């Protein structure tokens, strides 16, 4: 198992963001990222054609997640793949989630 190795790694001591800070950080990401009501999670739903491309996006997210040891929840099906980032160890949204979301945006750009 890969230990979280991005931005110094995550732990229960990693600071979580206020909803206000999260909203500011969201502006640095692709416009499709959405912040959950409680401010703990960001989600991007990617529309694709068919099923294979949805699986490829999920695989790309899995590949990136295992490199960094920081893992999004991934949902996919015909026509879509959705990624959600939160830092489980810290119990909320952290800079690590933002960094991962940004890197994923870069892979799709
Ligand atoms: C030991 C290891 O670094 C941790 O358990 C990692 C694994 N992947 C993780 N992924 C996410 N999204 N949050 C975490 O807190 C987390 N913790």
TrEMBL record:
One GO BP annotation of this record: tetrahydrobiopterin biosynthetic process
Lineage of origin:
Bacteria, Pseudomonadati, Pseudomonadota, Alphaproteobacteria, Rhodobacterales
The record ties this protein, via Pfam families, to: Pterin_4a
For this protein, the record's PANTHER family field holds: PTERIN-4-ALPHA-CARBINOLAMINE DEHYDRATASE
TM regions (residue ranges): none
Return the protein name: 4a-hydroxytetrahydrobiopterin dehydratase
**Which source organism?**
Marinovum algicola
According to its UniProt record, the EC number is 4.2.1.96
Q: Return the SUPFAM superfamilies for the record.
A: PCD-like (SSF55248)
């Amino acid at each position: 198992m890969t230990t979280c190795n991005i931005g110094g790694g995550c732990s229960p001591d990693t600071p979580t963001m206020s909803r206000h800070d999260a909203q500011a950080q969201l502006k640095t990401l692709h416009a499709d990222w959405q912040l959950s009501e409680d401010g703990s999670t960001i989600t991007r739903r990617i529309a694709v054609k068919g099923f294979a491309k949805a699986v490829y996006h999920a695989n790309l997210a899995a590949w990136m997640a295992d490199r960094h040891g920081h893992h999004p929840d991934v949902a996919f099906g015909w026509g879509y793949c959705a990624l959600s980032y939160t830092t489980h160890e810290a119990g909320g949204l952290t800079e690590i989630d933002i960094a991962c979301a940004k890197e994923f945006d870069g892979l799709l750009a």
